[in-house]
Design goal:
Blueprint: H1 2-17, H2 23-49, H3 54-86, H4 101-122, H5 132-153, H6 158-163, H7 165-189, H8 193-200, H9 206-217, H10 219-243, H11 248-255, H12 264-271, H13 276-298
Length: 299
């Protein structure tokens, strides 16, 4: 158990401990990280094609993803609504013109296309593709190192995180209520509880959760985690503008770990510049928790 946890966390910690301050290097790391996500999702698609009983496994993937996303999102929504009732988030912002939600949704769905291309190629059963699983392990280690470097390069300090009470409060509620949703999903799906907890620990970071859970539980659970977290991001993009006026904490919490990057423009346009510090802290905290929790529950 602990050796698996160490293998996952070690490159992440090493990356976070390396001080990088040059903007040019940080841009290269961000570009490399983007490429690595596409490479590993492509390999995940290849692995899917080598599954036995392919048609029944594909049905299982979408069944697991649908049940888990419903359970996790409902628990998140209920907990965040209770937080908003108990501690309303006061603001004076008037909503601006929004970026195209369709365009942003299509950007997310491009990742599904990469998995599908890998899957179609895997169906050819080309001999070199049998090494995809080993290649993905090395790619995963590099990805985690780059994630650590990116988190360090974001410039967030522990002091800044702790001082932003709202961002930390929403992140805590999202983290705990998602785990409850994962337990409920595991019970409904007949999965081990730790598998349900691991599924719930991606917090919308589909590129990481899909990869880590594929390594830990195989391509069926890994693919279910990917689609579960991708659906979370797509729902957040669609619902933020509607929710943010009356339910500001709910809108932020729906974004999960993506509130510090992909969904940040929608949050800023809808909620104003004052929501940005809380969104960055919220996303940063969940981005730190996601690999730790996934490693803990999948080891």
């Amino acid at each position: 158990m602990y050796s698996g946890l160490l293998i996952i966390l070690l490159p992440l910690i090493v990356g976070y401990l390396l001080p990088l301050k040059r903007p040019a290097l940080l841009r290269i790391i961000n570009r490399l990280l983007s490429w690595m996500v596409y490479v590993i999702l492509f390999v995940m698609g290849i692995s899917l094609a080598f599954l036995d009983n392919l048609s029944s496994n594909l049905l299982a993937i979408f069944h697991y993803a649908a049940v888990s996303v419903i359970c996790i999102m409902l628990c998140n929504l209920l907990a965040l609504w209770l937080l908003e009732r108990r501690s309303p988030w006061r603001h004076q912002h008037k909503q601006q013109a929004l970026p195209s939600r369709l365009h942003m949704a299509l950007e997310s769905l491009k990742l599904c296309g990469v998995v599908i291309v890998g899957f179609v190629l895997g169906l050819t059963q080309w001999a070199p593709l049998h090494y995809a699983s080993q290649a993905s392990e090395y790619a995963l280690l590099l990805l985690l190192l780059l994630v650590g470097l990116q988190l360090r390069g974001s410039g967030m300090t522990l002091r800044q995180i702790v001082l932003n009470r709202r961002g930390m409060l929403v992140a805590t509620v999202v983290a705990l209520s998602a785990l409850l949703g994962g337990l409920i999903a595991a019970a409904l799906l007949g999965l081990p509880l730790r598998t349900g907890l691991a599924l719930a620990s991606g917090y919308g970071w589909y590129s990481l959760s899909g990869i880590l859970l594929t390594e830990a539980f195989g391509p069926v659970i890994g693919s279910a985690a990917f689609f579960n977290d991708l659906l979370r991001e797509l729902l957040a993009i669609m619902l933020i503008p509607t929710l943010i006026r009356q339910h500001r904490s709910v809108a932020l919490g729906l974004c999960g770990a993506t509130s510090m990057d992909f969904t940040l423009p929608v949050l800023q346009r809808s909620g104003g510049i004052e929501i940005v510090p809380a969104a960055i802290v919220h996303g940063f905290a969940l981005s730190l928790l996601a690999p730790v929790f996934i490693a803990l529950f999948s080891s």
